[in-house]
Amino acid sequence: MDSITRTRLIFILIVVGALCIVGVSLVYQFVAPGDGDGSGFTAASVANTPPPAGAIVVEIESSNTKEDWMDHVIASFNAGGHTVNGKQIVVTVAHIGSGSSMNDILDGTVQPVVWSPGSDLWVTSINQAWQDRTGRRLINGECPATLRLPLTIAMWRPMAEALGWPDAAIGWDDIAALSTNPEGWAAYGHPEWGQFKFGHPHPEHSNSGMLSLVAEVYSAAGLTEGLTVDIVKSQAVIEDVGAVEQQVFHYGKKDTDILLRMTQRGPDYLHAVTSYEANVIKWNQDHRDELRFPLVAIYPDDGTFWVENPYCILDAADWVTDEQKEAAVMFRDYLLSPEQQKLAIDWGLRPVDASVALRAPIDMAHGAVPAITIARVPHLAYPSDEIVGHILDVWHQAKKKATVLLLIDTSGSMQGTKIKGAVDGAVTFVDQMDPADEVYVVIFSSKVTELPIAGPVGQVREELKSSLRSLYAGGATALHEAVIYGVDRIEQFKAQDEAMDERRLYGIVLLSDGMNDIYGGPSENDMFSHLPSGMEASGVKIYTIAYGNDADIDVLATLANRTNGKQFTGDVEDIEAVYFLISSEF
After folding, report:
1. Where would I find the beta strands (DSSP E) of 246-307?
2. Does pLDDT of 118 surpass 80?
3. Is 54's pLDDT higher than 70?
4. pTM of the predicted protein model
5. CB count, 10 Å around CB of 129?
6. End-to-end CA distance of the chain
7. Are 263 and 284 in contact (CB under 8 A)?
8. What per-residue confidence (pLDDT) applies to 450?
9. Domains of the chain
10. Are 575 and 421 in contact (CB under 8 A)?
11. What tens digit of pLDDT does each residue of 136-169 get?
């Protein structure tokens, strides 16, 4: 992902009655779904096209996993000319992670009519948060399930087969045992694979990340329901969760980001990531020529989440009108109709009606095991919002900690609102860090300077934030020298940690609004030659932020890509959101 802007809203506009609408031109594109079997279509994004005057617009915030199917159903519905009180209905959708969309709704950044997160767990959370703030719930009506998607562990097929896939029962306890086994994969006859390397999305941003963590806790406790605070915070649970989390080399905002890393870097980089069965199927379809081996879905036999992707009308929200509620009900009924439910299979999605016969691409050829159902692998009970909070406490305690170096451009071109925005973003980033994470700050203009306030975030947070707020801009841009200095420093920290057998995540966050204009110092080639290879999951990653139109986009993208980091673009208005997004990597 090379941009922090939210996924653009997909406006699907109807053609029926177009001749009656003066001055409005609507454009549609339709493509075949899934494998291109010709059984239907999805709508391409039609950005910045306003709905017809007087239309009832039903805006939906929807989880990413069902994106293709949802786009198709919306296009079909909008083309059907549905109306309320003689006004045509136009449904639009934004596809975004469940945790991120919840935060956006709570913050007032978005005001949808319908919210469809990945699971019911988020519905409980948003209602609790809304009640805490306003004294009332946000959603009073029922939130019917639209699908039934199993959360799985996506693994390279040869590795899964070494564990006994597809016939053997494989659970989170097996993953924990593999994580702690000093022999690693050698215990399964494959010493060449080394130690197990795992990834899952950040549980505070992603539905699959949150549910992965809850499933780990259930497995560690030997339960499928009935979690209590004492159970969650027991030493046995903390140790088992820690065993898995210490083998996590990647977090991230969503599982597909991690799947992309696996595709690009191959089996030696990461061995497995938690993801939905549908994403495994989609990945094998869309990336078959890039994958070294196919991916397969492991369904943890000690229980998993068969997520509902609930459809929630925000019926208690002040911004939702009665006409929008009525229109949202009409679209809900259309979404749940047998025809649209059966069509979901084209995208590897299981219908909510378990009696519907599954077919390709939900099959072994695409990494799925259709014979595994909720009757065979139990659905884990969603814990209360209070218990989820304690589970997150355990995760923060057990997870790998991060060492991050902030590399901030303070050259003259950053004067005015730019330096203020950069500082505000950096302060937000520090606020998001775990107290046991370590943070270091290096600023650069004509020269490179490391700030003296550094170390464990819990010890330096407030003093460092004060120091950041005192920064000002001036001078030239010693970008090459700054990057070389930053890499040397964090590699030094990494070597010290490894000597003490301490496992951490390492990253450099580089913000610059320009390009190197110091001559006589290190060249661009000198800088690139100094970078870590990016081929090791445990290596230092560089996350770059191109700030403003004059930033050297190509150089910043190369720094990120070569180290397996990410490149972002930002400006004064959204720089805090960029830093917040980067924080999900740790």
Report:
1. 248-250, 272-276, 295-298, 306-307
2. yes
3. yes
4. 0.79
5. 16
6. 16
7. no
8. 97
9. 10-140+309-351 (3.40.190.10), 149-307+372-396 (3.40.190.10), 400-583 (3.40.50.410)
10. yes
11. 999 999 999 999 999 999 999 999 999 999 999 9
